[in-house]
Amino acid sequence: MRFPAAVAILGLSAALLSGCGSPSAEGHRPDGTHVTIRVPADAPTISAAVSLAQPGDLVLVAPGEYHETVKVTTPQVTLRGEVREQVVIDGQLRRDNGVVVSAPGVAVENLTVRNNTQNGVLVTGSVKAAAGLPGSNRGYDTGDEPIHFLSSFLVSHVTATRNGLYGIYAFSAQNGMIEHSYTSGGADSGIYVGQCKPCRIVVRDNVAELNAVGYEATNAGGDLYVVGNRFSGNRVGLTTNSDHQEKLLPQQDSVVAGNLVAANRQAATPEQADGGWGIGIGIDGGSDNQVLRNRITGNVNAGLVLTATQDVPPRGNQIVGDVFAANGIDVGWTFPGATKGSGNCLNSGELRTIPDGLAASTACPVAATAASPAGTWPWPSPPSGIPFTEVAAPPTQPQLPNARTAGPTVVPPVPVFPDVARVQVPAASLLADRASVAVSDE
After folding, report:
1. pLDDT tens-place string over residues 374-383
2. Where is the Right handed beta helix domain (predicted)?
């Protein structure tokens, strides 16, 4: 049913109001009042509902397929689907983004985004990125645009599949959380965190599979925690890197702990832009990262690769307590150009490494100035990929509890950081009930 926007909001029944009081005849709400705007009962499209929302409101979307790009520009709005797999924002391969968040304190929950030429969900403080202006090499090069961080966000229980760039993308954003989500068919990566320092972002309890790269962080660090995720069945599981295309070089200071990084050797995936395949974790010009107690298994090229990017060396990375098995090699450090690494260390048991004896020669701690040894090995040729539009459909994912009845989500100004000391090596079955790619621990 269509009706004028102002009348739509003011005419909401008391049953749709949360908090205390009700809107006055003049359209002013008592302090602390918020409303639930239902799609399509109160507004015909998600975009129409979001345009009516005020801070603290909940936009609750009924099952259906919605052909639109939803732009959330009002702070502290919750956008939530009633049924995760049945509320589908479909770009029909004609729209660049499914959901764009450019206001602080916004929560995106319990819905599916697919078939966008760029991103499923984009959270950003960049005006250029929000406008969908990609730079060269399919990433975002915002040129001389001043850095402006979006502060505080939440993406939870979102399924992002078959998107032409990233599934869930936090760019020039801080103080956020990406959790309980599933990404597949990302032609660049399933989850991406870029250009934030300090980030103060937590990425936890997600499944990223059948992407070119499961998770990628570029020029991102500072209270950046990637914990308890399943990065399996991609071409490359996880990368953390420095790149001149984005600001805030170099990448540094993230924690990657307690993740399953396995079987990243799938052919039925979009081709990775740099040709990578069969790699669990790549550190490419990143520094001062902690890679702690991950299970890294079944990656046909290498479990972990440490290298430089252009003129940016990797420095001070700590690889400690990880469990490696059934990889082509477990750990390889390689510097094919003039840029070399220093101060990197490895404490993860008896491993197959390049160069040989790496675990013994670089046991933590090492001096910050200690040159990192390196070698080379033959990399397997990657198989041809498939279009991102042809990636297998996602398995059923868990719902946000009480999605239909819970009030709006209050996004904290800074997320609660995990207690990394308590994070243990996960089992090979981590989040297996949400994944389609099987993982063996052999």
Report:
1. 999 999 999 9
2. 98-241
